Amino acid sequence: MQESFKATVKITVTGAAGNIAYSLLWRIAAGEVYGKDTPVDLTLLEIPAAVKAAEGVAMELRDSAFPLLRDITVTADLETAFSKTQAAFLVGSRPRSKGMERADLLTANGAIFSAQGKAINDFADRDVKVLVVGNPANTNALIAANNAPDLDPSQFTAMMRLDHNRVLGQLAEKLGTPSAEFEKVAVWGNHSASQFPDLTYANVDVDHDWYVNELIPKVANRGAEIIEVRGHSSAASAASAAVDHMHDWIHGTEDWRTAAIVSDGSYGVDEGLVCGFPTVARDGRWEIVQGLELSEFQKESIAASVEELRSEREAVQHLL
Ligand code: NAD
Ligand code: LMR
To answer: Which terminus of the chain has fewer Cβ atoms in its 10 Å neighbourhood, N or C?
Structure first.
């Protein structure tokens, strides 16, 4: 029987020779972002020194014979990479090593996102969806969005789905319940140690001390823990969260998810900062869940992380 396919979508992945991409590209090519009815053209962007390695990744993708995978382009050129792209995963940038905070990467990585924001502004599809994974992800997304004045800021997001998934993973382990059963979980703020994993509205009954003194610091420091134990920063879990984020953005959600999006001023978060919120996706847009009453504990926890986002914005003024 003849299968019926939708139109082919163009997807760009930067940092294509890196660790995250080595997992992410296979999930995209398998149709896990747009769906099993949507063929994909993949464009892999790398720095010139890593283009050969990215060619090797492209060879392996071909050798995987994915039914949905059409063209593969490998390039170091920004116009080629982003021309007419509909979904961009901005992964390419340096990861931190032991002892560093993610914000220590601002100097090394910030400029990548001003150049890519400009190129997306100039060449991408007008409805492009952009997910920044490279750290510090929130402020890199802020930089990219500010360099794309012809696009809507809501088209630029940063990845905090990994933090959200980490909460679900910890709850599943603690309570012996499958992760899909938890609802109304959210992570506010920055993808950093200051983030605020929030169980206030979740359908879970957990000990308050465990929540405040164990779960919150465990999730907020999980990236550093992975680097310590694994020897490299998270890769497959990051790729998985990137697929979840983009899939839900495209297909919509019933329950809450965490996405870092450009703030409209909700909940006292300065307009323009890219911040993690409780969100739902509807009609191809992330919307902040409105009308939540915040306790003093929530307000203080959110404010501490927003303060860090402000200082990161201050540090990259020259790139905005
Ligand atoms: P990696 O070092 O394995 O790969 C990064 C790749 O990016 C390299 O191949 C490098 O050549 C390429 N690159 C560098 N500059 C580039 C540019 N200007 N254009 C295109 N490609 C470029 O790193 P990784 O483990 O894949 O991690 C990538 C980034 O993702 C890091 O910044 C890491 O901290 C971040 N990360 C974020 C999250 C999150 O939850 N937001 C989770 C995990 C990792
Ligand atoms: C993570 O949360 O695993 C990533 O942001 C990598 C890191 O540097 O912690």
So the answer is: N
Q: Is the confidence at residue 9, as pLDDT, over 60?
A: yes
Burial (CB count within 10 angstroms: exposed 0-12, middle 13-18, buried 19+), residue 295: exposed
Instruction: Looking at the structure, give the CATH architecture of the domain made up of residues 161-319.
Output: Alpha-Beta Complex (3.90)
CB 186 within 8 A of CB 164: yes
For 5, other C-beta atoms within 10 Å of its C-beta total: 12
Q: Is 96 in the pocket of ligand 2 (CB under 6 A)?
A: yes
- The residue whose CB lies within 8 Å of the most ligand 1 atoms, and thus the one to mutate among 13, 20, 43, is 20
Q: Give the global pTM.
A: 0.97
Q: How confident is the model at residue 101 (pLDDT cuts 50, 70, 90)?
A: confident
First-to-last alpha carbon distance for the chain, in angstroms, is 53
- Region 9-158: CATH code: 3.40.50.720
CB 116 within 8 A of CB 14: yes
Residues of the chain above pLDDT 90, percent:
93
Q: Is there an atom of ligand 2 within 6 Å of 158 CB?
A: no
Instruction: Using the atom order of ligand 2, give the atom closest to the CA of residue 224.
Output: 9
Is 94 annotated as contributing to ligand binding?
no
- The answer, yes or no, to whether any atom of ligand 1 lies below 6 A from the CB of 134, is yes
Query: Catalytic pick from 191, 208, 247, 251?
Result: 191
Ligand 2 centre from 233 Cα, in Å?
A: 6
Name the nearest CA neighbour of 258 among 270, 271, 274. Answer: 274
Q: How confident is residue 2, by pLDDT bands cut at 50, 70 and 90? A: low
Mean pLDDT of 199-216: 97
Q: For residue 208, indicate whether it is catalytic.
A: no
Structural domain boundaries of the chain? 9-158, 161-319
Tell me, what's the pLDDT at 63? Answer: 98
